[in-house]
Amino acid sequence: MTDPLDAVTADPWAAWLGERERRALHLPEYRRAAVLVGLTREVDARVLLTVRSADLPTHKGQISFPGGSLEPGEDPVQAALREAFEEVGLDPAQVTVLGELDDVFTPIGFHVTPVLARLPAQPALTLSGEVAQLLLPTLSELRATPVTRETRTLPDGTRVPLYRYPWQGHDIWGMTARVLHDLLRDGPA
């Protein structure tokens, strides 16, 4: 029987995480959140994205990773797994957490830790009312998508890049596109 730890260390994404220095943010005034960046265990991995319901109070219809605010006592991994279970029914037992990506922030005051994980090729998923649709683009499809880049100035004067990935009629932008951009640019091919 194969040791699950060996499977993680043999994963090219785990090796990539181990070779880089994670950039953490320290923004005490921002609300902490986490998202699950789930990649399927396939030669051309697919990334798990959701289209948020039009009935939600914020980010209606936007494309996102499963995720949300940390609850008291939770760390980012626990929050990402809980939120993925709540939003798309992803059983945490099906998930192999590889580690945390660079923290990102949103202009509306969230400090987000993306948690990179591997999922089965065909994960059993059930959508909650928060999710209108699942998207599972392959990494090669996203790499082939002509990304656009704009620069936005935050209220404090900081200039930040804003990426957009048009994929099959969907507009992937904002924090989701920023995390994807780093993953696609720097991660294993």
Automatic annotation (TrEMBL):
Its cofactor is Mn(2+); Mg(2+). The keyword Magnesium applies. Keywords: Hydrolase, Magnesium, Manganese, Metal-binding. Residues 30-160 form the Nudix hydrolase domain. InterPro entries: CoAse, Nudix_hydrolase, NUDIX_hydrolase-like_dom_sf, NUDIX_hydrolase_CS, NUDIX_hydrolase_dom. The keyword Flavoprotein does not apply. Belongs to the Nudix hydrolase family. This is Coenzyme A pyrophosphatase. It comes from Deinococcus sedimenti.
